[in-house]
Amino acid sequence: MFMENIKHSKKSMASYGSAKALSMFIDMAFTAFGFYYYESEIGLNVLLVGLGYIIFAIYNAVNDPLVGYLTDRPFKFTKRWGRRFPWIMLGGAVWVISYILIFTPPNVDPVSGAWILFAWLVFATCVFDTFNSLFFVSFSSLYPDKFRSVEERRTANAIATPIGILGIVAGGMLPPLFITFGEIRTYIIQAGVMILIGLVLLALSIPGCKEDQEIIDRYLATYDKRERVSFFSSLRIALKQRNFVIIIIFYTLYQSLVICVQSSIPYITRFVFELEANAIIFMMASFLIGAIISVPIWIKLAQKTNDNRKIIMIAGFFLAFITLPLSFITDYYILIPVLIIWGVALGGFWVMLAPVLADVIDESVVITSKREEGIYFGFRQFFGRLAILIQAITFMVVHTLTGFNEGASTQSQQAVWGIQLHFGIIPTIFMIIGMIIFVKFYNLTPDKVKANQDKVIQLGL
C-alpha cells in the first residue's frame, strides 16, 4: 500500500503539533527579548549587539544546511528509531536547556567589559542555534514524508497550527509574567520556567514525531540504491530548482516582517506606551484570538479553492496591509484590536506555509528522484534565520541614526519614532517585496501539484 493512503490519527497529528508549539514557544521568547535584553537591560552598545547577531546569522550559513545534509543518511539506530525521531529528541532537549545561556552573561560593566559580553552573546546564540537546527530541520523534514496526500497534509496542518499558535503566544505571554523591566534577575527566572514547559512539550511530541516502520523501511531500501552526492552538489541541485529559490526568498522576507514586529514589542511597550512588561501579555493574547479564529476560515478557503498558491498570496497581502498602521498607533487600547486583525492575517500564513513547502518538496523529489527533505529544510531554516540578520541590521541602523540610548529607562522622541518605524513601515516593505517576487515567479498551480504527487507515487518515494 502506498504511503499516501495511510491515514494517521488526529491524536498523532496533535502530538506532532506539540513539536510545532515547542519550536514557536522558545523562538518567540528569544525573538521578543534577546536583542532587547542585551541592548536595553545589559546596556551593551547596539553596534556590538547587532554585530553579534550578524555573526550568529552567518553561522547559520554553515550550520543549518549542513545539519540537513548530515542527518539525511542512515545511522546504526535508524532501523529501530527512524531517520528523524532521534535527532528531534536530542536536538530539542539540548536546545531548550541552552535557552538559559542567552540570559546568563558574565556580570561585567557593559562599557569596560563590552567585548566579554559580545563574546558571550556570540557563544550563547551559536550553541542555542546549533541544537535548534538539529531539532527544527528534523521535525520539519518529517512533515512531507509522514503526511503524503494533500488532504492529510491540510488536516495535519489544521490540527497542528492552532497548537503551534498556542506555543508562539505562550512564548510571548509567559516571560512578561516574570520579567520586570530594569531587573536582570527576572529574565533568568523566566528562562527557567520556559525550560520546564519546553521539556514537557517535547515529551508530548514523542508519539507524533515517531516514524512509521514503513517510512523507515522504504527509506533504507531506496537509500542503498541511490548515489550519494556531496553537500555542495546537493546545494547546487537545490538552488537550481526555481520554485524552491522563490519560496526561500519569500520565506526570508516574511520572517523579516515577523521578527521585526516581535522584536519591537518590548521597545514599544516600554518606550512608546511607557508601560510595564506585563502589558505585553494582552498584546500577545490579542493576536492569539485573531489567529485561532481565523484558522478554520483559512482551512476552508484552501479546501474550497484547492489552490495553496492563491490562498498564501491572499494571506501575504493581507499581512502586509495590516502591518503598515502599526507604526502610527500610539495608544495601547487602539493597538489591541488591530493586533487581533493582524493575528487573522498571520494565521493564514501559518496555515498555508507548510502545505506550500510540501508542494515544493514534492517537486524536488520528481526532479531528483530522491527524498532529501533535510537538505531542503536546512536551506529553508538558514534563509529564515537570515531574517535575524536583517532585523539586527535594521535595529542597529535605525537606533544609531535616531540616537537610541542603550540601558536608559526613557528615550528621546526621535528614538521613539525609530522604534515605531521598525514596528510597522519597515517590515511592511519587506513583505511587499516578498509578495511581488512570489506572485511573479512561483508557478506551482494545483494541476502541477497534482501531477508531481502522481509522479512521486510512480517513483515509490
Would you mind describing this structure in some detail?
With about 450 residues, the chain is an all-alpha fold. The chain has one domain (about 10-210, about 220-460): Growth Hormone, Chain: A, CATH 1.20.1250. About 80% of the residues lie in helices and about 0% in strands. It has helices at about 10-40, 45-70, 80, 85-100, 115-145, 150-180, 185-205, 205-210, 215-225, 230-240, 240-270, 280-305, 310-325, 330-370, 375-400, 415-420, 425-440, 445-460. α4 packs antiparallel against α7 (about 185-205) and α13 (about 310-325) packs antiparallel against α17 (about 425-440). It starts with 9 loop residues before the first helix and ends with a helix.
In short:
Helix content is 80%, strand content 0%. By secondary structure, the chain is an all-alpha fold. α1 runs antiparallel to α5 (114-146), α2 runs antiparallel to α15 (373-402) and α11 (242-272) packs parallel to α15.
Largest sheet: none
Shape: globular
CATH top-level class: Mainly Alpha
- The tally of domains stands at 1
| Tally of DSSP helical segments | 18
CATH topology: Growth Hormone, Chain: A
Report the uncertain regions: 1-5
Topology record:
Elements: H1 10-41, H2 46-71, H3 78-81, H4 85-102, H5 114-146, H6 150-178, H7 185-204, H8 206-209, H9 213-223, H10 231-239, H11 242-272, H12 279-305, H13 308-323, H14 332-368, H15 373-402, H16 413-421, H17 425-441, H18 446-459
Keywords for this entry:
18 helices; 80% helix; single chain; 461 residues; Growth Hormone, Chain: A; mainly alpha; disordered N terminus
